[in-house]
Amino acid sequence: MRETIKVRKADVAEVLARTFPSYRGRTFRIVTRERITFSNMHWGGGSRNEYRALRLSDGALGPIPAGSAPWASPTEGLAVDLPPGVVVAEHVTFCGKDLGIRFHVNPATVARMLPPGPPARTAPALVTP
After folding, report:
1. Range of the domain at 34
2. Torsion of CA 72, 75, 77, 79, to 10 degrees
């Protein structure tokens, strides 16, 4: 099941600094999924997606080559499994408009990407006479 979670820049600042350090926009989403398909990696109609892969355990940044043209791209249209502990950051530009950064993560990894929630509240203990 795929879920999209809108987050603040502060929530993803560390991953953003490693994947798209010069990005200055304000729109960020975490998308949970087990498989990702790389698409629209070249300018067409003012639209393009840029991808970067980051391994959270050691901060290694993996290349996702776009190639020189869609017909020569080694990754265009490629569907790959998204292993736990890896984040694929996708910068989306659609018809010339910046739609922000999507962080694609395996559902097993999403808890590491989300900010901590409010502390759990417990019911007061009942006192018996």
Report:
1. 3-113
2. 160
Whether the Cβ atoms of residue 59 and residue 17 lie closer than 8 Å to each other? no
Residue 6's pLDDT is 92
User: Is 80 exceeded by the pLDDT of residue 36?
Assistant: yes
Domain membership of residue 14 (yes or no) is: yes
Q: How many domains does the chain have?
A: 1
- Give CA 70 to chain center in angstroms: 23
- Fill in the amino acid letter for 11: D
Contacts 24+ apart (CB under 8 A), 23-26: 23/91, 23/101, 25/98, 25/100, 25/101, 26/100
Token code pair at residue 100: 């922000």
Pairing between β-strand 35-37 and β-strand 79-81 as defined by DSSP bridges: antiparallel
125 assigned to some structural domain: no
